[in-house]
Write a structure and sequence with these properties.
2 domains, 7 helices, rRNA binding, ribosomal protein, single chain, alpha/beta, six-stranded mixed beta sheet, elongated, 209 residues, Ribosomal Protein L4, Chain: A
């Protein structure tokens, strides 16, 4: 699949690049995508949730009524979870939600996500660019030229570019990452995937292993 290369003003440069069939043209594996997205979302969880259990509640420890003869259930502590103000039974405890996935599966998931976006014609290839100084207005001009100012977009650069990254940081609908940071959830959770020429080769190298 060939895609036209645009400049940052949105004009066609007259050149085209080939999107590798091994990366942008495979049959998507839905289960691999599901696992990779699940892992990403799990890693975002802090896991700091906690509720007090009966051992952590302040209160009397005396037996509140005799064991037998009351006609009701036996009760040994006012801190029991069955009483108002007692500790919570089987409440949440701090935990780590992360889990491991094989590298080959994660590569398959990313290629599947890229293939879905390429099939839906949501991949834009632009020339490598830079800003002299970090300025949000400069990045907004690029978005408007590409008609992405009102849509979600993910920019993939070939290497770390502080000026471009800082220029985009205040914009909720746009995100800038390096090719080595490409992730399945980000690729799918965007309307347009904007890839620079330099990063395209790096993506092909990283995902063709």
């Amino acid at each position: 699949m060939k895609v036209a290369v645009l400049d940052i003003t949105g004009k066609d440069t007259g050149r085209k690049v080939e999107l590798s069939k091994d990366v942008f043209g495979i049959e998507p594996n839905d289960h691999a995508i599901y696992l990779d997205v699940k892992q990403y979302l799990a890693n975002q969880r802090q896991g700091t949730h906690k509720s007090k259990e009966r051992a952590e509640i302040s209160g009397s420890t005396r037996k509140i009524k005799k064991q037998k003869g009351t006609g009701t259930a036996r009760a040994g502590s006012i801190k029991s979870g069955v009483f108002r103000g007692g500790g919570r039974m089987f409440g949440p405890r701090p935990r780590d939600y992360s889990f491991k996935l094989n590298k080959s599966l994660k590569r398959l998931a990313r290629k599947s996500a890229l293939s879905i976006q390429a099939k839906d014609e949501n991949v834009i290839v632009i020339e490598d660019f830079n800003f002299e100084t970090p300025k949000t207005k400069n990045f907004l001009d690029v978005l408007k030229s590409l008609e992405l100012d009102t849509r979600k977009s993910l920019f993939v650069l070939s290497n770390e570019n502080a000026n471009v990254y800082l220029s985009s940081r205040n914009l909720k609908k746009s995100k800038v990452i390096k090719a080595s940071e490409l992730y399945t959830y980000g690729v799918l959770n965007t309307n347009k995937l904007v890839i620079t020429e330099g990063s395209l080769e790096e993506i092909n190298t990283n995902l063709s292993k």
